[in-house]
Amino acid sequence: MAFALALAFLAIGAMGYLWRESTRRLDQRLDAVAEGVAAAVGRELRDTPDSGLRYAAAETAKEWPSNGDAFVIVDGLGAELAAVGREGEPGAVLGAWTQAKAPRFEVPHEGAALRASAVRTSLALDARHAWKFGVVAFSSTEGVRADTELLAGGLAVAAPLIVLLSLAAGYGLAGRALRPVDTLGNAIAAMAPSDLSRRLPVERSFDEVGRLAGEFNGLLDRLEEAQRRNRGFIREAAHQLRTPLTLVLGEAGHELSASDANPERTRGALGRVRVAAERMRRRVDELFLLAEARSGEPVRLEDDVELDGLVLECTDLMRARATGLGRSLAIGDAPHVMVRGNAALLQEALMELVENACRHGSAEAPVTVSVHPAGRAATIEVSSAGHAFALPVDARREGERGLGLTIVQWIAGAHGGSLRVTRRGALNVVALELPVDAAPPPSPAGAASPARLDGAAALR
């Protein structure tokens, strides 16, 4: 439709241009005829000055070549002196000339307009011979109209043919251009949701279809990676919950299979079930945090957290847990330091570090928590005795310690800080370093950042 409309405007413009050019050329020819007749009358007057203006006009009309020119010669008052043209045309032109204000005008005459061009001349040979006369050259516009109608007829026939041929050619070219898109569509339709390893063919990476295929392959890479992380998360969740769940089922089955009632045995079994349930609840909480870390959602850092108060609170909350594990807690240096962050996550991180030190450390030294400000950063340190270990920790080999430290490292990264493990004499020192002033700017979408950990694998 747009092409046909443009073609119609082009045809109208072409016909308008032809009409204007033909009319301009006709006016030029009429001007030349009028000036030529005026010059011829002037020559007759110079040759026979005593014969008069009428005689000179008649002689000019009689001697003018029979080439189809038409004109009227008039005197100074507008009276006709001589004329060349078909019957009726000179009178019609002369009548319109008296009313015309411009040197060029048109006169309607028997269905075809007459185009006219007039010149006025004043000729003075001497004091006794001075003449004023005018010449009006005219011609029918039938030729202009015929040419325009011929062009219009040709365009009326050619335009539909051009549109039809263009549609056919455009359909063929569009089909050829869209063939790679059909190929991509068929390749996409053949992909199964469970198998994201297939990729689209990229024949020409520099064109639009090639770039589209490349972007889609990139999306498949990200989806495959997300699918791999989800499967790994499910396996890790099952691994973390299997041990306490097996313990609960074993204790319950053993107690139900007992033939006699023993309150002490039952109380001991319930205690072990409770411990396993607590471990399972903690593992579920940690898995929720790990799922949040893997999702890449930004962490809201809107709390003003006093690190000395955080140390006091977490130490108090973990004191009973440390006693149950046969460990003692101590608070080292804890000056007043405030950071901007997420209070709940920082509490979870510190409690996880204390829990990890109590479970895996030895009783040779108390688990000590301290705060050390250093310029624009502050460090929370948890020191404990025990076998040396270092980051990165593989959660699948280290069990609970690996998962807990994975979560702590994600929390540290989300706050723009870091987690490191050092050996200080006979003590393991786990240091959580946090910036004091402000939270780090958010990472660009899709970029690797500490807040997008892939479980324990990210720590490797």
Describe the structure.
The protein is 55% helix and 18% strand. Strand 4 (114-124) and strand 5 (130-140) form a beta hairpin. The radius of gyration is 52 Å and the shape is rod-shaped. It is an alpha+beta fold and 460 residues long.
Order of helices and strands: HHEEHEEEHHHEHEEHEEHHEE
Supply the CATH superfamily name of the largest domain.
Histidine kinase-like ATPase, C-terminal domain
Number of domains: 3
End-to-end Cα distance, whole Å, is 62 Å
Secondary structure tally, helices: 10
Low-confidence stretches: 393-401, 438-460
- Helix fraction, binned, reads 40-55%
* Gross geometry: rod-shaped
Strand order of the largest sheet: 2-1-5-4-3
Q: What is the CATH class designation of the largest domain?
A: Alpha Beta
Q: How many extended strands?
A: 12
Rg over CA atoms, rounded to whole Å, is 52 Å
The overall pLDDT average reads: 80
CATH architecture designation of the largest domain: 2-Layer Sandwich
* Strand composition percent: 15-25%
| Biggest beta sheet summary | 5 strands, antiparallel
